[in-house]
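Can't paste images in this forum, so I'm doing it all in text. The chain is below; anyone willing to post the predicted structure tokens underneath?
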Amino acid sequence: MEGGTTGTQVLQGTLILPDRLAPGGQVVIEGNRIVEVAGEGHYRPDTDYGNSYIAPGYLDLHVHGIAGSDVFGGQKALAHMSNRFAAHGVTGWLSSTVTESFDVLREATVAARDYMAGEHSGARILGTHLEGPFLDIAHKGMQNPACIIPPDIGFTHDLLDVSEGTVRRMSLAPEQAGADDVIQLLLDHDVYPSAAHTGATYEQMMHAVSLGIRQVTHCFNAMTPLHHRHPGVVGAAMLTDTLYTELIADGIHIHPAVMTLLIRVKGRERVMLVTDAMDATELPDGTYYLGEQQIFVHDGAARLADGTLASSTLTMDAAVRNVITMCGVSLVDAVYMASTTPAEAMGWPDRRGRIAAGLDADLVVLAADLTVVHTLVGGREFQPEPLAL
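Text version of the structure:
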């Protein structure tokens, strides 16, 4: 086979594979799928990226906004966000809400559903992630306390119905009365429940695990901590092999030493890098809103007026660089946590998260300093819009 045949392209560079770096590796793409991964010189490349890295596209399972837009802004905002995420190497993301009224959540869910049904450039929306409203008010973090409610089957049913299968995750406090029934409903609809903003004891968290919870949202943040007599949600998360844990790797939400501890205990196979980013991401310090909550950004840290951390201004490419520089993680393992682990956690290993034959041709090309050079979504190189400040 010669490179450059109709419908086929061969990319060459240093491939970031799950188990190694492969200098001079080749990715053969037909249409929007990878059909072969070959060694150096096997085919004549259409595009030779030289010493640049070719990685699987990043997947962000928890992100609210970027560059002045958030998930409550409708179709135009979602398109803008998808564009900006792709500029940071993200090829797929979950449209993540915060705790709001049913009507607001319904509108955001419908917007994501309808956007997913169309053809767009940039990162793909792969579903909706509902963060709340079934949370513990004592661990609310930045969530709007006026909209936190007890777990409600009818509320959940209605959102699932209107989503038409596009709600993929729901973050909730599993110790709340009625949570067991909601967790079962979510699982029955192939939605992943995730423990978040929770005051659960270790025992309550392990009960939730027995019901089928397999994910923990922004581990360490807004949950019962690890204590030597009360292991809490964090203790359960660190000890339970079946639990995937989100990690906001900005060095603000969690001290780098604790980030390192989580990765060492859980391993790359159970730590998912996320951004939890808001609309202030890529923009100057100032005053912003996420939902109805006013947020103040100073030196890149987003907080409520009382100092509570509120979302982030992190990007996925920065998260990958951070776990390398702050935690001593290898490039292969850092990319694994940004791509492969999220895909495994969401049941997508046969579609995305690795460079392998049969998977979507969602790729990111990285310079030596791990900044993004190009992003390919479905085999098409994406050209980001310029950032307007």
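Residues 275 and 314 are 5 Å apart (CA to CA). The longest helix spans residues 102-116.
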